[in-house]
Amino acid sequence: MCATARKALSALAWLMTMPVIALAAAMYVMPALLGWQFSTVLSGSMEPTLHVGALAVIVPVEAEAVAEGDVITFFDGTRRVTHRVIEVRGAEGTRSFATKGDANNAPDAAAVAASSVIGKVRGNIPYVGELALNLRTPVGAGVLAGAIALLVFLSFAGTTRSSKADEPALTRGSDSGA
User: DSSP string of the chain?
Assistant: First the structure.
């Protein structure tokens, strides 16, 4: 492989690797520093606000800061649920919330205790939650490992020493000047 092709291959590998590194930093480092959590939207109960397969960005919040209209994520005893607050009940220290999915016809059956609130949804990243779920399967993990291996190979393929065929021929000449 000629030197120009190796350099182009190495540059391509780095261009493919940088977004992966940036995504990993965005998904693991920043949330850990800021206390954020992510949750994959599994049902259509919050359509059109949150689409199935989106990754919801959840920030911690005190119960006193939750207001009517906020979209919160809470633990209902068995799973995480993300729904909109339709009513704030009780006073400070005894607060609870009536919630409802935007696409649901009726409010949730039980009120959400303040202690069950995980946080407010501050935004979402479409399709990334679906990708994250797929990467957790054996096939997805294999595809990810293969992609990483390919990127590593491509980045090193461009930096290996050139082969003998690519090097200029060195010859011995006579230095005798005769």
Answer: --HHHHHHHHHHHHHHHHHHHHHHIIIIIHHHHHT-EEEE--SSTTTTTS-TT-EEEEE---GGG--TT-EEEEE-SSSEEEEEEEEEES-TTS-EEEEE-TT-SS--SSPEEGGGEEEEEEEEETTHHHHHHHHTSHHHHHHHHHHHHHHHHHHHHTTSPPPGGGSPPP-----S--
